[in-house]
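Re: your question from the hallway

Yes, I did run it. Sequences:
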Amino acid sequence: MFNKLHSGLLLLQIRFHGRGGQGVVTASHLLAEAAGYQGLYTVAFPIYGAERRGAEIEAYCRISETPIRVTSPIEKPDMSVILDHTLLEVSKNPLRGLDKGNGTVLVNSKKPLNLDYKTYYVDATGIAISIGLVKSGWPLVNVVMLGALIRVLNDYVKLDSLKKAIHEEFSGNIAELNIKGVEMAYKGVSGVLQYA
Amino acid sequence: MMRILTGNEAIAQAVKLSKVKVSAIYPITPQTGIIEELARLKSEGEIDAEIIRVESEHSAMAATLGAALAGVRVFTATGSQGLFYMHEMVWWTAGTRIPVVMVVGSRALGPPWNLWNEHTDFMNERDSGWLMAYASTPQEAFDLVVQAFRISEDDRVFLPMMVGMDGFILSHSKTNVYLPTQEEVDSFLPPRRQPYIIDPQEAVGMGNIFPPLEYMKLRQSIDSSIKSSVEVIKEVGIEYNKKVSPIINYSTLNTTYRLEDADYAVVLMGAWAGDAMEAIDELRRKGINIGLLRIRYVRPWADDEVISALKDKKAVLVVDRAASLGRAGPLYMEVASTTHLDQMENVITGIGGVSIGKEEFIKMFSEFVEEAKRGKANGVKWFYPQEVEKVELRVPKDLE
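Structure:
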C-alpha cells in the first residue's frame, strides 16, 4: 500500500487519537508542517470542542500532491495513530471507519495487538521515559510517535522534514530530546514485516 | 514563501505585513489565536504595533476606532457573543466613515453555549454599513485582510471592512499559505489614508445630534459608497493578483465552479465550498449538470454577477449556514431579492457546528435536482446529515 504512495497518491488521510494533554493536535500539526517542507499540500486540524485533560481527543491530517478541498473530519482514514492504547478498551473511535483490508493502525504499546487491521506498535511511552522526555509526570509521546509513523509511511514524509518542523515548534533541550525520541521510534516500530 | 499556518496565524501575518499600528482585541474562541500570535510577534520584535489590552469587545472596537480617528492603521477581531457585545460600536464605526479592518471568526450564538461554526453572527452585521467579505480558505482570509486595508482606505470608499472566516474549520486548520514578501505588500498597499483625523490640540464636536434630513442624507451616502465599491474591489483585486499573489483570482467579487454549462446552481459561502466542489465533481461524473456560485462579498452585494451567473438556470439551491429564525437563510433572502427564477430553494444546515461534508452535499444536491425535475424545488428546509427525532414545536409549559 505505502509503496504506491510515491507514484499514484491522491490523498492520504491520517487520524490521531489520544487524550487531552498528550499533544494530539500538536502531532497532527507537526506532520502537516513536515509535509509542507516537501512541497506537499496538507491540512491538519483538531476535533472542535472544549478540550479537557484526559478526555478523548482526535485530530486529523490530510496530505496530498494536489490541493485539498474537503474540510470535514476524517471518517474513513487510511491510518489511525493511537497515542494511548487504553483508548481501544473504552472507545470505538480509534478504529472508526478503517478499511478491514487496507486500514492501518499504529499504536503506542509495549506489546503487539491483535486487531483486524495492518497493525504496528511502538513503545513510545518507554522511549520517552528512557530519555527523560517527561513533563509534569507525563511522558511526552506525541512527537515520538511521529518517528514510527514516518517509518510506517516508508519515509513518504522524511525524517529531515519532521526534524525541521520540530525545531520550528520547540527549542533547546525539548527539541533535541524529541528528535532523539523520533529516531528511536523510527527504529523501534514493529508490525507486519513486509511493511516495516 | 509557502508556510503551513492556521487561519488565525495567517491573519496575524497579514496584519504584520500590512504594518498595522494599533490593535485592540478581546479574546474569544475561535479567533483567540490571532491575538496570541500578534502578541508573540510583538514580544519578538517582529511588529511595532501597539497592542491594547481591553476588558470587552465593546471597548476593543472603541479603542480601535479611537486609534483610527487619530490617524493610524488599525485591526481588531472577534466573533459570536463578542461581536454582539461589540455591535453598537460596529455601527458607530461605520457612521464615522473611518477605515478599520476587523476579522470575524464566526461561531454560533448562545444560549445554550456552543463553540462551533455557523455564519449567523457575521450575517447579522449586514445592515451595519461595513463592507463584508467571507473567506473560504486560510489563504483567502490572508489575501482578503491585506486587500481590506486598501479597499477600506480608498477615498471612494472610506468605510470599515470585515473579513469573515469559518470558526475552527479555517481558524484552527493548519494548511499551506503563501506569504508574500514585505516589498510585494508595500508595492500594493500605500500609506494610510482617511477622510479626517482628530487632533486633541484642535478640539471639535463629533457625532452630535443631527437633523433628520441631513442624517438621512448621510445614511444614503454610506449606501451609495457601498454600492460603488464594487468597482474599487475589482480594481484592487486585479492589482493584488498582479503585485502580490496570483494564486486566487480576485478580478470578480464572487467565484463560480463548473457553473457556466450547468442546468442547476448551488449558491453558498465559506469553507464548505471546498466540500461542495468535491460533491459537484462526483455528481457531474454521474451526469448531473450542477455548478456552484460562491459568494465572497456579502457587502457590497454584486447584483450583476449574481444575475448573470444564475439567469439561465433551471433551479437554484441556496445553502445557508445561518438562519433568520421564522423566515429563511439570510443568503437566500439576498439571492431571492436579486434574481427571480421559478425554482429557488433554501436549505439551512450546518448550524451550531453540525458537520456537512462532501457526502452530505451529494445527498442534499441530488435531492434538490430530483425536486427540480418535478418542478418542486421551492421553499425553506432544515437539512440534517442524519436521522433526527422530529423537531417538536415547544411552548414554555413543555419545559416545566
